[in-house]
Structure formats: structure tokens, C-alpha cells
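Subject: Sanity check before I submit

Could someone independently write out the C-alpha cells for this chain? I want to compare against mine line by line before I put it in a report. The sequence has 298 residues.
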Amino acid sequence: MNLRPNKTKQQTQYPTGQVIAAFGRHYSIKTVNGEIISCVMRGKKGGIACGDRIEYQLTAAEQGVIETVCPRTSLLYRSDAFKEKIIAANVTQVIIVVAAIPSFSEELINRCLVAAESEDIEVLIVLNKADLVEPAHIAMETLSLYRDLGYRVLPLCALQDISALRPYLSNHLSVLAGQSGMGKSTLLNTLVPQARRATAEISLALDSGCHTTTHSQLYSIDDNSAIIDSPGFQEFGLNHITEESLAWGFVEFHPYLGQCKFNNCRHITEPGCALVQAVQQEKISSRRFGFYHRLLRR
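---
Independent answer below. Compare away.
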């Protein structure tokens, strides 16, 4: 899923900007001069994401039309059999936010990890509400599997202190991802105090609730770092991921892929499957292998 230009030297050169908010088919663009303009996409094309670099043409004061979407370095999106939902473009880090309470979906974590791995995007798992000692302890036991796989896991309390998060944001375009109710908005408002005010103003303009994230929005942290807040989700479809890519989305599978007896092995119950043998030898977690089988069924 990529809108890539087919430029020639004869084409008009338009000014560039970055999509910092997406409301359906309307977009807020930050120009190279730091101005904010409202744009639509020319024609009926869509598929523009928060974080996209674009070329635009002004049509009126503070209004314009997007002419081109520049080549992307990454694209994070989810899909099912019927539609695709873009989350963010050009991000270098996905911050998966979970919480001690309410309980989180471990399958959703695995789906996010596969999506991030498929685009070569770094991952940070944040456990919010870590001040709730007993629930946080139980949650960390669950997350220890991912920490042992090499994923960074950071416990914190967004209402108290997020200073431990700041070093992880440096020189990244990060996107917050996770289920609704995990505290992503609270974390963002603590990190970027003006975010609450901006969200309220935009929500009022769209006649939508002020306390629910209904659109993706990019916030600058410093000259080299920014963060995108995205709406929470309860499902993360991976219909766009092939079976081969799905297996590569599990980092601990890598040493065994290509070592199976049959080239078309699906790693279920086939004889001579290197992954099945690795699970039997406890070199791969049976829990993760179970999630792989669930994702095979999408």
C-alpha cells in the first residue's frame, strides 16, 4: 500500500510539508516554514497517513490540495479481508502501550510486533499504571517473554512520572499504539502539555468528543523528535502479511526458517519442521508458537 510518485523533470515542483493530522479526507499540513494549512487530496485518491511527506499547491489562504505523496520509509497499517486502515507513515518506532489495569490482549501485542517487524520499525513496549504494584507485577511476568526476546519493556505511571520515557523518544518519529483504555492519551498529555488543548480545539471543530482520540495527530517534541497519537483499537488485522512474512515477524524463528524438511512448510505439524522441533526442545516459547498459529488463521 504505497502512493509513490512517478516524477519527470518536466513536472511542476511544489512546496513540501508533513501531514500532522488526518481527519478522513482532510489533512492538516505543517509547511517547511512552520505554518499549518488545511489540505485535501486531489481527485478521489486517499491513503494518506499522519507522518507522510507531501507536496501541495495552495488554493486559498491557509488552504491547499495535496499533489503528491513522497516515498515513504515505512508504513504502519492494519487490514482485514475488506479494508485497510493506515496508522502512520515514516515512523521509526512503535510504542505499544499496555496497562496493569485493565487487562491487555497479548495477541494484539503479537499482531503489532509482526506489523512493526514487517516494516523494520523499532518497538518499545510501555507498561502504564505501574504504580499498581500487584497488577503491574503480574503484567510484567507476561511481558518478560518479550523482554527476553530483546524487545524493550518500560514500566511507568503516566500520571506520576514519564521521565524514563524521554530518552527513548530522542531522534525518533514514534507512534503510540494499543487498545483503548491503556492510557495513551494521558501519557501524551503528560509528555506534550499542549496536546490536551489542541485535541479539545480540534474535537470541537469536528463536533466530536473532547476526551476520545478520533484521529491521528503528530506532535513535535524537539527539532529531531516527534510522536503520533493514534486512535485506540481492539483488533489489528494482518491480512496484508503473507504467511512467509508472518513467520519472519517472529524474531526468534529466524535461525530456523529455511531449515525445514519441506520448502513449503507452514510450521504446523509437518514432519521435519525445524520450528516444531525448536519448540519441543524449548528453544522457542510454545506460547509464542501458539500465537503464530492463531495469526495464521488471521
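---
OP: Matches mine. For the report I'm noting this point. Residues 197-211 have pLDDT under 50 and may be disordered.
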